[in-house]
Predict the structure.
Amino acid sequence: MWQEENLIKTGTMEGAVPPTCNKQADFSEGFGNTSICLGEDAWLKSNKSMFGSSMTSLTWDLGDGTTSNVENNLLYEYNQVGTYDISLTINYDEVTHATSESLSSLDLTNASSYDSSLTNVIVQGSQSELNAMNASNITSHDIDSLGVFWGNANTTFYRGRVLQKHYTAYYNNSCASTVVKTAFMTVNPTTASNSASSYLYDFSSNNDLTSDWNIISTNEDSNQWSFNTNSSKSWQWYEGNAGSSSCLMMGGKDGSNVSTDNLISPSYDLSGYTKPAISFKYTGAAVNTFPSNELKVYYSNNCGDDWAFLGALSNIDVARAGLFTNNFTPNGNWADTLLTKTSLKNDNIKFKFEYSTNGASNNFFLDDIQIGEEDDLLKQNIELLSRIKIFPNPTLGNTNIILNNLEGKNINVVMVDVLGKEVKKIYEGLVMSDFLQLESNISNLDKGVYFISIYEGNNMLTTDKIILNK
């Protein structure tokens, strides 16, 4: 720590000039909402207070050709629908200084001034060393090699006081700090222009994401100490592989930061629907034995000012494919869900998918987001929904599994735990009719949540949850 090479590289060498202009401008939306309706005010709050009296000017660029010098709480009404980049620039003055025992060690060329001061410091050494330094108030001390004081110890040292002269050079700096937040504010129409009979986002191309959906993330920069999860920050388009079409991916997290990643839809006019609903497919995996991340779905009827809860996938649902020590990719084991509420029947509805990071996780995938009539969405998935029925559920041990619409398929029916480990093989073979009932006793398993899954080769056809109480 004290070697000259380290002192130079860490900027602690005698006379070293410290870094300049380190303060960072920042701002937030005062209502905590970056999505508003046309005609509403955006409330922009700067971090002006951290600059104190050193601030010389403040300038907002509101992204629509307007600038403002309002210093702290800026209320601004956009006059057009759109998404806007916002930037803030704060100019400020600062004075830095460098100190050294030697005037020649200081950079006086760029200094605005310098002065000197005397400091009374304690010094330690032999009698002759302290005499050579013209030390005053010299006293002797006894200490042995273990650092213990004794009256008759074999080691004696001396302490005294010496006046040391230090020189300080001062540097005046003019600084500017700018922060730019891309697509920070979205201004929505008071009545949605999207009024089709249904919508489908299959993410076959990246355009579904970039042209319609808005990503808002509270993540910090990825941690450099992450191990076997990737460094993706937020939602991104996944191009797919041999076992999957293109979809959206939430990359695995290392668990070092608690964060929230939001995927927000455009506005839809669903007032003409009888029973509006939203459905989607999902799959994901865990990276350890205690998955904790969740996906929650919300809706808003006032341009995102307020969000009402619509439904959620638990930590077990999000990690439905089980435990993977490497980066998980979709392998056919998708699940479907459908969410609806009568209050979705409105002329200005937005949806929000909120992925909460509460610990380490593996990859999570989202696909085929559909918005439409509940009955129509159910019909599109009726084959999957009718393939499996389990009763009683919860069960004390004996259970019946009814399979429909699988005639002519060569299938495997297996039971897995919440981490995807197979705990029981229930059936393997060709299904000879449209209806197949299987009986199984699982009382030898531990109490808890399990999944019964149907496979045709490597492709998972469907799965359902069973709860064992005993």
